[in-house]
Amino acid sequence: MASKTNNLPANKIDWKEVSRLMLLSRALDDKEENELVPDKKVLYQFSARGHELAQIILGQYLTQSRDSASAYYRSRPLMLTLGLALEDAMAAPMGKSGSYSDGRDIGVVCNLPGNGGPTVLPMAGDVGSQYTPAIGWAQGIEYHRKTLGNEEYAGAISVILGGDGSVATNGFWSAITMATTLHLPVLFFIEDNGFGISVGSELQTPGANIANNLRSFKNLRIFDGDGTTPNDAAELIETSVSYVRDRKGPALIRLTVPRLNGHSYQDNQSYKDDELIKKEQKNDPLKKLKSFVVPKILSKEEWEKLEQETKSEVDRNAEKAWDREEPSTDKVTRFVKSDGVNGESETLQKVGGLRVDGYQRPDESEKTAPEKQRINIVEAVRRTLDVELHQNDRVIVFGEDVGEKGGVHAATMGLQNTHGDERVFDTSLSEEGIIGRAVGLAYSGLMPVAEIQFRKYADPATEQLKNCGTIRWRTANKFAAPMVVRMPGGFAKCGDPWHSESNEVFFSRMIGWSVAYPSNAEDAVGLLRSAMRGNDPVIFFEHRNLLDSKAARKPYPGDQYIVSFGKASHLKKGDDLTVITWGAMCERCIEAADNGGFSADIIDLRTLSPWDKEAVFESVKKTNRCLIVHEDTQTAGFGAEISSQITEELFKYLDAPVHRHTMPDIPMPYNVGLMNSVLPDSDSIEKLMNDLIKF
Questions:
Q1: Residues carrying an active site annotation
Q2: Is 514 helix (H, G, I), strand (E, B) or coil?
Q3: Is the pLDDT of residue 4 over 50?
Q4: pTM over 0.90
């Protein structure tokens, strides 16, 4: 509990500035609730009323340029404290141009590039997703400090703000595990208002107090107190921040605060009785702050002047914000991915990735310099990782079992021994944690290469994967998180619903991500190297049946070899039929064409996002027939997208219907006979080729 001493925090904190920001935040909420929302100038409104004091005091202690805050939708008081312009704060909920999303995101889902001060990592609308990226930033702090020797990071910390409802989420528990096992400079800042919308804290954590429940956690210091009493809250916050800055370990501070409004403007709080509402109003931190500073720090007249000034300031900025231009509809599709293709200059993000700090891609070539010996895909991946780890000290490789074991597929064998356990390391068994951590590491200027052991295991990380892909777009190119996620999947010596899922279409339609799907060792080298040097997040799919397949073996193509995304490969050239495929189906399509003696134009897409529409269309115009073969299930598989575009744009060229040959809409069976009965094979592909040619 906080001490009752009245000297330490009061001497360190600018209480007049705290009062100004508190009144400013309250006036902003008043303006929205009483005018802007009823007038439909603001469509989504989330009040911070009751939470302000603790956040504003916290902001006074975030003083280092490499500090970060990972916050949530009730964190606008902290944003104002850290330098968010009031006009921007008001323009964002109005959906006006500029601000932190250019009208693309809900107005309280904020971000703030540091520019010499603390960085506020991009928030998200889903509860609990703010935790694991902040862990990545904290690990990035330590990597920059220890491994790269950058003293700018000495003493920097990562703070994560969350409500009491968020402590029930996967992200929270994954973050707690990583912070404590890795001894990271993280402060968990829990604002407990007693409710997750209408659900009480007693259903979020046993006993309704997460601080009590975590006291037995090793390497986690717990602070617990009142977030509405100025001096006590200040002393507790100062002590917890200092504890983390001094590298004593991670800490969690729980501060009880009232939520003086509903969850959002539309919430009438009918689930609260009158007695509770009166109790919360009595606990209003603004009233307590006024009693604390008047007349000891501010006179009554000075307080009243601040009230009037902040109200007038909000009124003026509301008018200025409303007068801003509407966001340009011509630009709404911009910044889904990095630009700068086809020789154009790149509009670089402000935070995240290698290029912000001036990274220049090493010499590279799309021409191979092949060695004599053929290698399999496992060795292609391992060797490419090794080369890039040697060439770029900001590349780090991690995932479950990738360290001493070398990965369950042996693709990272020996890398930890060569590069050390700060650059190649194991993680806890949490895919949410693996991907969320990668996002934060990317924000900090590193190139994370994360492994998910099997495609199906990525499902718990879906929230982080989807949020990662939209970062650039929803921050209007202020932030980006370039990374590589390696992901084996597909059938092998047998199948099963858990290790053999393909489902690449899920990632192909996931906004902001690129998807690579090599069918041989040469392409694996070139695509992986391109991904690790790029400026966008990439799913790198490694098909299990190809990892040691003889058909996929090719000579190592050289340390400079790259394959550009969106460029397909012609496996065979022919005039009778276009066959579009990728991954393990490439070998089977070639075998089918050879067995049938067909003159088939067989195209290996190599990447599904982007896919080489130009090469496909050129081939279909030549052959007038098209067969699409893939392992994924049929309904809404990626072949459906290709088929649709061919039918829409090339209908007049077609002499036969576009046909898809895929798995049926079932999970992959374990029994080998069952598996082979549902997979496209060379015999079934050959028959369909023959049928289409004769159509």
A1: 499
A2: strand
A3: no
A4: yes
